[in-house]
Amino acid sequence: MLEIYPILPPFIVSIIIGALIGGVISWWIYNRQEKISDAQDTVLSSIKKLQEKHEHVLENVRKFEQTHDIILNDIFTLEKKIDSLLESK
Question: Would you give per-residue pLDDT tens digits along the chain (89 residues)?
């Protein structure tokens, strides 16, 4: 005798289709988050490098200001000496 078995009941087919769709959506979300995370890491790395360069520039400006102050003080001292020499004559 030949018996006809139903392939799958409809609720099992619905569960399988739902699981497949859920799996695809989960993979897609994970993949998107991974790409975003990589992009964020790249941006953060660039920001870190920029911050290091900024600190270097600020250090150079600080050194320049110190040198400028020393030279300016020397100029004022020379001016005072010149004024005193001119007054003594």
Answer: 445 556 777 788 889 999 999 999 999 999 999 999 999 999 999 999 999 999 999 999 999 999 999 999 999 999 999 988 888 87
pTM above 0.70, yes or no: no
| Six-digit token string for 3 | 């018996």
> SS3 letters for the chain?
CCCCCCCCCHHHHHHHHHHHHHHHHHHHHHHHHHHHHHHHHHHHHHHHHHHHHHHHHHHHHHHHHHHHHHHHHHHHHHHHHHHHHHHHC
Determine phi and psi for 75, rounding to 5 degrees.
Answer: -65, -45
Backbone angles phi, psi at 38, to 5 degrees: -65, -40
CA distance 25 to 12: 20
Residue with the two structure tokens 């600020």: 58
